[in-house]
């Protein structure tokens, strides 16, 4: 039996198993014994492992953090990594987010594409590889994670318990054709304390909501004498508003929001505010700090003035997003999210960036680094997956690099492959998430073909 037919044999059972799992609202909840991510996530894992057992596979439950099943023999193992946890349903659904209804050839519900559909498909793909009788030289493991959406502690636990690392593999938790590059991501928090002198005093400054979102609004309130306040409130700058408030004046900046991985698509309101403040009659340490931020960051999105500009042909420029600022008359802190190109490393930008802030009197309060992922286009993994993709869909394509991070970063030797096809509507993390039955089946066939290609 050829592999695609072997998948079709399981079509109805696969749809039913997916519907059952979708009815479990596996959003992270309070930890319980054996259920580190909550009872519902554990139920979803139990259901998926029971499905694997019904298909004839031995399963392992890694203390409720992850589960896996495996087929085949051999020294080496290749893996497909999916996850069963979902983000909360949120508002705006026109169907029951946990109803798993089939309407117009589509299965509707939270997790259909992200990532229960592909995860359940991987179980049936593994069964199809076995049923086909095709010879393989490596073991194939389906890993089912339970904490992708809120930190990937599941994979950390698996690895800490000595969980085997695949020689290669993929996670169907991104898009087709293949994402072979993911920029390194650094989240840095800096703070600065200051004594204020001079006629204008900062009372409060605030902007942005999260490091990975381009802020669309920022504002600062100042104290000063009335005559000066009146003058300041008459200032003008594009996309800025100055106004009188009791005891002083207020400056507001407006920007355009965008995802922090693509800051060039937005306009940074905090940067705009700070550039405007740099022209006010501030004095002393605060003036120096504002001047530094206006000069080194401003509204720039590539780190050039901060001295960390990097670029490569695979993934483009370093991107930088100044996500938040929060402060009062004595201190402020800011969060910056920047992402370096895939052929570089932390050492090429992190130390220089931190040193520039240190010299300007800032303190680095926290720094979290997620290393880049890069598997070259001519590697066996990428060329095998591209071949499978083209054979199964008839589409050509090229591997691509992104600024975001996928589940592939959680384990070495993996990259993101599927489940979203070019031109598909993106519904993950949004209301009315769905997967068409056609796409579910095609994904299962692609996963099966890729499993075989990597394990043969
Ligand atoms: Zn996901």
Supply database-style keywords:
Alpha-Beta Plaits; 6-stranded mixed sheet; Aminopeptidase; 2 domains; 25 strands; binds zinc ion; elongated; 8-stranded antiparallel sheet; alpha+beta; 456 residues
Task: Give a concise summary.
With 456 residues, this protein is of the alpha+beta class.
How many helices? The count is 11
CATH superfamily of the largest domain: Zn peptidases
Q: Helix/strand/pairing class, anyone?
A: alpha+beta
The domain count comes to 2
Give the percentage of residues in beta strands: 25-35%
Largest sheet: 8 strands, antiparallel
Principal-axis shape equals elongated
How many angstroms does the end-to-end distance come to? 16 Å
> How many β-strand runs?
25
At CATH level 3, the topology of the largest domain is Aminopeptidase
Instruction: Report Rg.
Output: 26 Å
Q: Which CATH class of the largest domain is shown?
A: Alpha Beta
Name given to the CATH architecture of the largest domain: 3-Layer(aba) Sandwich
Please state the average pLDDT score. 96
Give the helix proportion (percent range): 25-40%
As residue ranges, the low-confidence spans are: none
Widest sheet: strand ordering: 14-15-13-12-18-19-10-20
- Distinct compounds present: zinc ion
Give the topology, please.
Layout: H1 3-9, H2 11-22, H3 39-54, E1 59-62, E2 66-71, E3 77-83, E4 102-103, E5 106-108, H4 116-132, E6 139-145, H5 153-160, E7 168-171, E8 174-175, E9 179-182, E10 184-193, E11 196-197, E12 201-207, E13 217-223, H6 226-233, E14 240-245, E15 248-254, H7 269-277, H8 284-296, E16 311-312, E17 316-317, E18 319-328, E19 331-340, H9 350-359, E20 363-370, E21 373-374, H10 380-393, E22 400-402, E23 414-416, E24 419-420, E25 434-436, H11 437-455
Parallel strand pairs: 3-6, 3-7, 7-23, 8-24, 9-22
Antiparallel strand pairs: 1-2, 2-6, 4-5, 5-25, 9-21, 10-19, 10-20, 12-13, 12-18, 13-15, 14-15, 16-17, 18-19
Helix pairs in contact: 1-4, 1-11, 2-3, 2-4, 4-11, 7-8, 10-11
Bound molecules: zinc ion.
């Amino acid at each position: 039996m050829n592999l695609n037919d072997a998948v079709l044999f399981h079509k109805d059972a696969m749809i039913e198993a997916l519907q059952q799992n979708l009815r479990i609202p596996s959003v992270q909840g309070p930890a319980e014994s054996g259920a580190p991510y909550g009872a519902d996530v554990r139920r979803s894992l139990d259901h998926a492992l029971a499905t694997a057992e019904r298909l004839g596979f031995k399963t392992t439950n890694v203390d409720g953090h992850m589960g896996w099943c495996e087929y085949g023999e051999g020294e080496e193992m290749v893996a497909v990594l999916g996850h069963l946890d979902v983000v909360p349903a949120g508002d705006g659904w026109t169907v029951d987010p946990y109803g798993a209804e089939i309407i117009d050839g589509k299965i509707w519900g939270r997790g259909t594409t992200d990532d229960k559909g592909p995860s359940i498909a991987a179980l049936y793909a593994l069964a199809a590889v076995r049923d086909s009788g095709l010879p393989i030289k490596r073991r194939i493991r389906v890993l089912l994670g339970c904490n992708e959406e809120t930190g990937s502690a599941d994979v950390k636990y698996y690895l800490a318990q000595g969980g085997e690392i695949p020689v290669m593999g993929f996670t169907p938790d991104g898009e087709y054709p293949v994402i072979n590059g993911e920029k390194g991501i650094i989240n840095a928090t800096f703070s600065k304390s200051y004594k204020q002198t001079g006629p204008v005093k900062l009372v409060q400054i605030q902007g942005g909501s999260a490091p990975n979102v381009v802020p669309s609004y920022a504002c600062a309130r100042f104290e000063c004498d009335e005559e000066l306040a009146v003058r300041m409130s008459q200032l003008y700058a594009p996309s800025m508003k100055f106004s009188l408030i009791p005891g002083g004046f207020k400056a507001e900046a407006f920007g355009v929001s965008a995802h922090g991985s693509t800051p060039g698509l937005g306009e940074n309101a905090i940067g705009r505010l700070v550039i405007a403040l740099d022209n006010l009659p501030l004095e002393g340490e605060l003036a120096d700090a504002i001047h530094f931020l206006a000069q080194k960051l401003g509204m720039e999105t590539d780190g050039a003035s901060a001295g960390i500009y990097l670029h490569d042909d695979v993934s483009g420029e370093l991107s930088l997003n100044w996500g938040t600022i929060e402060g009062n008359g004595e201190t402020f802190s800011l969060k910056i999210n920047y992402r370096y190109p895939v052929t570089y490393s932390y050492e090429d930008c992190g130390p220089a960036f931190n040193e520039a802030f240190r010299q300007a009197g800032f303190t680095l309060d926290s720094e979290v680094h997620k290393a880049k992922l890069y598997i070259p286009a001519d590697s066996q993994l990428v060329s095998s997956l591209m071949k499978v993709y083209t054979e199964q869909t008839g589409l050509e394509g090229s591997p691509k690099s992104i600024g975001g991070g996928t589940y592939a970063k959680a384990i070495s030797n993996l990259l993101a492959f599927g489940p979203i096809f070019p031109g598909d509507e993106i519904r993950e993390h949004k209301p009315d998430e769905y997967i068409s039955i056609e796409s579910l089946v095609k994904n299962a066939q692609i996963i099966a073909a890729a499993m075989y290609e990597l394990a043969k």
